[in-house]
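Exam revision sheet. Question 4 asks you to relate a sequence to its structure. Input first:
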Amino acid sequence: MSMDNLPKSIRDIVDLVGMPATMALVKAYGGIYLKVPTGARADGAVRARLIGLMGEEAAEALIRTYGGERVAIARCAAALRDERDNRIISSYDAGTSATTIALREGMTERHVRTILKRVPGEGYGLAERAVVDDKQMGLF
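Answer key, structure tokens:
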């Protein structure tokens, strides 16, 4: 995942604990303030959840750096959407049908085709990316 669409606060966490641990944190706590535990209680519920999400080393680094603070965890909607769109484009380019992608991603086939027509990171404007169906005859 590119860090271009990530807010600075999330990029700082990526630098601290890495992208996979940060994305686990975003998926679990995105859109809310997280009261980071101080680490004083080894059996604390939030600490245990962070370890389960991020792994012990990443959770401990987060606690050491932000312990006792309320940290806003951004939703990172644009970055997650771009990641999904890139995954869809890669699957389609590798030969997976739009129908199979739609079922896997939990969306309509029409939405998959709309994604295939635009460039990730460019919003929802359509690009010059042609979606070719090998089963359909050309017009001219």
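Marking note for examiners. The chain has a mean pLDDT of 87.
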